[in-house]
Amino acid sequence: MISAAQTPLYEIKANLFKALAHPARIRVLELLSAAPDNSATVGYLLSETGLEASHLSQHLATLRRHGVVTSVRSANTVTYRLAHPKIAELLTIARIFLLDSLADSNEQLKLAQGLPSEHLKSSNS
Questions:
Q1: 59 contacts 26 by C-beta, under 8 angstroms
Q2: Contact 51/59 with Cβ under 8 angstroms?
Q3: Do the beta carbons of residue 54 and residue 14 sit within 8 Å?
Q4: Each residue of 16-33: pLDDT tens digit?
């Protein structure tokens, strides 16, 4: 059996992406990255995501377990923070990649729509 210290980096990366593989978790991370000091209270995250408290708690636990966020309790308030500022950069890079991909797809669609209609007819007609 491989120890945690011997786990290949690609497996660790895959687990990180598994932790990010839910829209609610991405939304939480985007909220944290946009917040002052990359941190926000659970109450704020609840109001902004519209999630039920139990669902938000599960998503935050997943992000915490994978080292993506940290939490601090002060009296009755729990504040979550990005564990590393590069997480915000990772989200920005993902957004740029997706917007570029969508732009390329849109350009391909426009080019396809500009083809003469005889290219769309089947050879059996």
A1: no
A2: yes
A3: no
A4: 999 999 999 999 999 999
The conformational region for residue 87 under phi > 0 = left, psi -120 to 50 = alpha, else beta, is alpha
CA distance 61 to 42: 12
Tally of residues, the chain: 125
- Of 45, 34, 49, nearest to 79 by C-alpha is 45
Q: Are 56 and 42 in contact (CB under 8 A)?
A: yes
* pTM more than 0.90: no
Question: Alpha carbon of 52 to those of 40, 46, 48, 69, 109: distances in Å?
Answer: 17, 7, 11, 19, 39
Rounded Cα–Cα distance for residues 69 and 38 (Å): 10
